[in-house]
Write a structure and sequence with these properties.
Jelly Rolls, 18% strand, globular, binds 2-oxoglutaric acid
Length: 251
């Protein structure tokens, strides 16, 4: 199931870029059709059932990792024309994917607290300025105020520092609501949080971090790439196959 050209609506990449730069995020509604989202959501559901542990039940949250090697639909979406276009524009054509997972909040899940994404939280302050990592949120269910849609603090990426009072909701925060199939693009330093799910239905998304290739990816992307058969040139690049690896420089 590949992302077909008709899925890619005409969007203004420059407008997305300036929204990410100015407010820290941009949402593109209905990037793929509800029918296609439902197919993907069903694949995620099978993985959730197969991998669910007591810890997931207790935390009311479940992340599925290494999805690139679990179904071809995920490598198609990782290289979706819109997503690659946005991050090529913002990070450069040599950008790579750092993590590619699904994230589900079950009914009753609480907030996860304000944070910026890797590699910011792994860095001492002052955090460097510039564009070197961005988050992609594929909404697999309608994202609503009630079911745990992601919250963000617009403009917080300009502060280049970790959130204060990580557990307290803020008056200047907004909730990223959208219909399933929509995609949100976030500056990696933007303060954001998963919100409580107060409904009786789970809420799922796919999360794809993309980074410049001088950063270490967070997941073992090359390990996953090695088990894929005949990856395309683009997929090889995005999964870090061309990323420089440490070696003996005297050789
Ligand atoms: O799923 C979400 O709404 C956000 C998840 C998130 O920020 C994270 O897991 O770091």
């Amino acid at each position: 199931m590949s992302a077909s050209p008709e899925d890619v609506k005409p969007v203004d990449l420059e407008d997305i870029q300036s929204r990410i730069n100015d407010q820290g995020y941009a949402i593109v509604p209905s990037v793929i059709s509800p029918e296609k989202v439902d197919q993907i959501r069903a694949i995620v559901e099978d993985l959730l059932v197969a991998e669910k542990t007591d810890q997931h039940v207790e935390s009311k949250a479940q992340r599925v990792g290494q999805i690139a090697i679990k179904h071809p639909v995920f490598t198609d979406l990782m290289c979706h024309e819109l997503v690659v276009g946005v991050w090529h524009n913002w990070l450069g054509r040599d950008m790579i994917c750092s993590t590619w997972t699904s994230n589900t909040y079950y009914p009753g899940h609480d907030t996860i607290g304000w944070h910026a994404d890797y590699p910011y939280w792994a860095l001492e302050q002052p955090w460097p300025s510039g564009n070197f990592t961005g988050q992609t949120i594929w909404m697999l269910d309608d994202f609503s105020r009630e079911n745990g849609a992601t919250g963000v603090v617009p403009g917080s990426h300009h502060l280049l520092s970790p959130p204060v009072e990580a557990d307290k909701w803020r008056d200047d925060a907004v909730i990223l609501e959208g219909v399933r199939g929509s995609v949100a693009f976030l500056h990696g330093a933007l303060w954001h949080t998963g919100r409580p799910n107060t409904t009786d239905q789970s809420r799922s998304c796919l999360l794809g971090m993309y980074i410049r290739p001088h950063c270490l990816p967070m997941e073992d992307m090359r390990g996953q790439l090695n088990v894929l058969e005949n990856p395309s040139e683009l997929l090889t690049q995005v999964m870090g196959g061309n990323q420089r690896q440490p070696q003996d420089v005297t050789g």
